[in-house]
Amino acid sequence: MLRLDGELVFVSGIGVRLRMRPLVGGSEPGGVVDVPLTSVGTTVHFADRRVQRVLPGLPSILLAFLDADGQPIGHERMAHALAV
User: Fold this and answer.
1) Most buried among 10, 30, 35, 51, using CB within 10 Å?
2) Do 32 and 51 contact (CB within 8 A), yes or no?
3) pLDDT at residue 83 above 60?
4) CA–CA distance, 63 with 44 (Å, rounded to integer)
5) C-beta atoms surrounding 43 within 10 Å
6) CB 13: neighbour CB atoms within 10 A?
């Protein structure tokens, strides 16, 4: 069994840049709006949970962000290699 807990700290914040464009044939210029989602130092805590370990060897924790359909955004990243 492995026991997992942790936190994700945003050291530079996260924002979204929205680009607005006119519909096809529109004559109005587009615009850009930056919307902050998290500020510097925002922390997300993960619940403490136990995970059944089924494979031998040294475990590692990989993180991936998923979209609303459960598809990965970008690549998995190794969070931490664990020594047992």
Assistant:
1) 10
2) no
3) no
4) 14
5) 9
6) 12
**What is the C-alpha to C-alpha distance for residues 52 and 10, in angstroms, rounded to an integer?**
29
- Give the angle subtended at the CA of 72 by the CAs of 45 and 49, to the nearest 5°: 35
Q: 31 phi and psi, to 5 degrees? A: -145, 165
Give residue 59's pLDDT.
64
Calculate what percentage of the chain has a pLDDT beyond 90: 0
User: How confident is residue 25, by pLDDT bands cut at 50, 70 and 90?
Assistant: low
Contact 36, 46 (CB under 8 A): no
- Our measurement of the distance from residue 15's CA atom to the centroid of its chain's CA atoms, rounded to an integer in Å, reads 12
For the cut 60, the answer to whether the pLDDT of residue 68 exceeds it is yes
Structural domains of the chain, count: 1
Residue 40 domain boundaries:
2-81
Strands 60-66 and 43-51: unpaired
